[in-house]
């Protein structure tokens, strides 16, 4: 079994978990607090970032999109119509664009700030930057949620799946990011019916069940978080 160093409310870690789950492959999970910069973890990834996958031979593979490429090359190419990438190079480009949209742009605009202020700072020591939430950062992130949700709603309303006709890494990235916001109760789903319908389909997939079982100490998810009919 492969091992993933992760944090349960980091979107890029969730992306890796649900992607492996789509291929029916389990991961041994080690929850890491990257701000502690443990020596053993730094030996795997000197940048002290997550996720890190220990692949065959305990070879570390660092970064969500790098891990996704590895997963496609070692498993995905054998899955045919269940492959999370596409054969067509233009479709592959669109999948990569949307993965970047959610795991880089939305992460920088929204998710990173909400997770840091609401999840991490209360448990980080002052020497690591912990403390009271920054209300300015929270307001800015919440103002950005609407634009990203409007875009997701448009994608879901005009396509069968986010990148086109079938399920791909784009859906894994979008659902991973939105699931973090949903855990925190930061999405008013009634305003985005197409996105809600798409996310309901994602939540109903077997690969998503471990994410819905995640709990962070001291932070209870919103009441509908694990409800498949919300």
UniProtKB/TrEMBL annotation:
Cite the GO molecular-function annotations of the record: glutathione transferase activity
Under Pfam families, the record lists: GST_C, GST_N_2
Q: Which SUPFAM superfamilies match?
A: GST C-terminal domain-like, Thioredoxin-like
Transferase is among the record's keywords: yes
Sorted alphabetically, the keyword list is: Transferase
According to its UniProt entry, one GO biological process term is:
glutathione metabolic process
Q: What residues does the GST N-terminal domain cover?
A: 1-79
Q: Where is the GST C-terminal domain?
A: 88-222
InterPro entries membership? Glutathione-S-Trfase_C-like (IPR010987), Glutathione-S-Trfase_C_sf (IPR036282), Glutathione_S-Trfase_N (IPR004045), GST_C (IPR004046), Thioredoxin-like_sf (IPR036249)
Quaternary state and partners of this protein? Homodimer.
Q: What is this protein called?
A: Glutathione S-transferase
Q: Which organism is it from?
A: Aquamicrobium aerolatum DSM 21857
